[in-house]
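subagent[fold] <- orchestrator: predict structure for attached chain, return tokens only, no commentary.
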Amino acid sequence: MPAAVVAAVVGVLYFLGYRYYSRYLADRVYGLDPAFVTPAHRFRDGIDFVPTNKHVVFGHHFTSVAGAAPIVGPAIAVFWGWGPALAWIVLGTIFAAGVHDFGSMVVSVRHNAKNIGTIASEVISKRARTLFLLIIFFLLTLVNAVFAVVIGNLFMANPGAVIPIFVEIPLAIAIGQYIYRTRSPALVPSLVGVLLLYLLIPVGQAFPLDITPLAEGLGFDQPRNLWVIIMFAYAFIASRLPVWLLLQPRDYINSHQLFIALGVIALGLLVGWNTIVAPMVNDVPAGSPSIFPFLFITIACGAISGFHSLVSSGTTAKQIDKETDTRHVGYLGAVGEGSLATGAVLATTAGVVATQADWEALYPDFSTASGGAVGNFVNGVAAFANNFGVPVDLAVIFAAVVVISFAATTMDTGVRLQRYVVQEISELVGWRAGARNLTLAGAIAVIIPLVMALLPGGGDAGYTFGVLWQLFGTTNQLTAGLALTVVAVWVFKRGRNPLAVAVPLVFLLAMTSWALIVNLRNFVAEGQWVLAPLDAVIFVLAMWLIVEAALALKGLSGRGADGTRGPGQDAPGTTTEAGEDVVTRRE
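subagent[fold] -> orchestrator:
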């Protein structure tokens, strides 16, 4: 089947989802109020709370949630066939990710831009906050460790990408200073930044930076680990800077890269008229993970991901200028990530290979598919670019720059979010220093995932991917289900129909619970006594939180659906029982 036809059909479905379904969510489910004064205005501090144009916030949000995950997951999941992978991406984006990302952001804006874990205490119960924060802490630790290792591997494989990536940092700071000081629109400066970034790709190609000699001189067994340390040092500094100085301008630059990368894929498909050579449904070898439930765990970002709720409620909600902007930022951000995931499917099934035999050589088993996912995407995009005359070696660096840019931005945001979580947990246990000292909280947010990323063991895949990675997918998707639980209870409390939230919630909790049980059985059988207890603890915490949510709903059910006012109907100067602040309104 021509890949361009598949891309066109998917694009139309995404357009219809945003045009109609997101409007339904905005008006009938979440009830957006354009008069509501957002936390970015009420708590404006110039560091975290900064009212920002919705297009700039979209750039920050999208590149924070995208990272390498919407590339890696789909590039692995085509192992089961491109048909099931693409179906989950499209349906998940429209009916699950859009609902989840959008809803998490709205609820956070209504609760002083608090993170979804803290909101659980106000919407469900105080115990729910502790349970959720523990799950979030574990997930963010995994995210930060994994993305640091991914970036390290990409730098080792593509030394030509080092100069463009690192020059982008001062470039973004200069653009951020210019926009903030002059109050100028961000579009033109950020486009200039993208142009300068891509002009540096030939420079990187001519002067590749390989740190292997330096790493060996410093005594590193794996040169990649020096990149891991460098990235965590950078992330610690970046997490302390005001969002307008580095995070926002760099994210806005990187958001343009999404459209450029998708444009390269689309143009390459049209010019080369590549055909999908992979099977629609693959006859996987015996002993492979089953498509149910593991397809829905492998593809997280790109369909639905719990990490998105942490970004939506942790950093993005603090930058929302108007509550109605959440539709553009939240739902359209999910569509953007679904588009990138679609591109990953096409790159790995129609770009990197010319025949089915070629594809089968890249995907003979699940382990090989997992290990080669990022490389298959990079080479697939390079092949699309080569269709219209871009040299392959230059196109490979371009694709690597795109992937590393997204992954580094996710890591920036992840470390900042982890600092917030450390501060909140410190408040719960009464540790004043951890709650008030930003440097100390930031150090804890960096040191724990850094240690995990550097731990030995786990065979050829390393400790991060060989051991802890096995829990990343289930923990991530479980967090999405729990975030939807909070959103569903909040919607119900406001007297609105929670069905649009409840359907993806039930499906996701079923898949993740199934996966946790299967993994627990396998871990015990294999004697993996690190993973088995962690799996069991996560499962117990999740089930406990679900019970808390059910009790909260039971307590509400006797009062009737009209027990609370909807948004826009709350009387000024009041606070709803869900804990949301409705004191101030735009005049």
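orchestrator: received. Logging for downstream: The chain has a mean pLDDT of 88. Residues 3-509+533-557 form a domain with the Amino acid/polyamine transporter I fold (CATH 1.20.1740.10).
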